Amino acid sequence: MESEIEEVDDGDTVWRFDRDFLESRWICLWGRGCKGIGTEPAEHLGLGCCSVGAEFGDVDEARLISALAATLSPERFEHHSDSAEGGIFSSEQRTATRIVEGACIFLNRPGFAGGAGCALHLAAIDAGESPTDWKPSVCWQLPIKVDWAERADGVEVATVRRWTRRDWGEEGEEMAWCCTEGPSAYVGDRPVIESLGTELEAIVGTRVYLELRHRMTGL
Predict the structure, then answer these.
(1) Is 88 exposed, middle or buried (CB count within 10 Å of its CB: 0-12, 13-18, 19+)?
(2) How is the chain split into domains, by residue range?
(3) Taking Cα atoms as reference points, which of 177, 197, 193 lies closest to residue 185?
(4) Contact, 180 vs 186, CB < 8 A?
(5) Each residue of 23-63: pLDDT tens digit?
(6) DSSP 186
(7) CA nearest 143: which of 108, 112, 182?
(8) Strand-pair category, 5-9 with 13-18
(9) N or C: at which end does the chain have fewer Cβ atoms within 10 angstroms?
(10) 3-class SS shares of the chain: helix, strand, coil, % to 5
């Protein structure tokens, strides 16, 4: 059975939303049940979906993250010395973050005194700012996925749905667990249209998000 689609026409872009996902109670289980995306479930490692690093959307994003990384303190950034010695990029092309000890260089491991989790995320909260302004877009958007296509009349069509195993490419075939598949992560106390409202608004814009939320919740 196909999911019901909610469509919002924004002029140059027609946004199509998977209502089933937005009405679901999916919630990120990082640190409280997330088994990671490795070939074997490994909740104890606390790697979440960070074990493959983060790809940057464009050159500007890579520059921004690099600049933000330079502001992080050793107290909040477990791999601060690795960053200082070898930088944050996986290659000279600067298209993705480095992998250090099995995960993204920005991931603080369980037990780190400065706090486990993404060092950029923690720093954003410390600064009183949104993590969406500090983290690579692929990180804060998960598990939201946007598929782009162009109609014959030149109008862009963007389909907003949940990320699935196949979206990880070759890694997806080997993953032992995917949080959007099965019931484990659908235990939140609010629907995704609300719990991921900040992320959705950043992706589609305020006008489209408010229209979508009104249709789905009446608010």
Answers:
(1) buried
(2) 1-29+142-219, 50-133
(3) 177
(4) no
(5) 999 999 999 999 999 999 999 999 999 998 999 999 999 99
(6) -
(7) 182
(8) antiparallel
(9) N
(10) 35, 15, 50
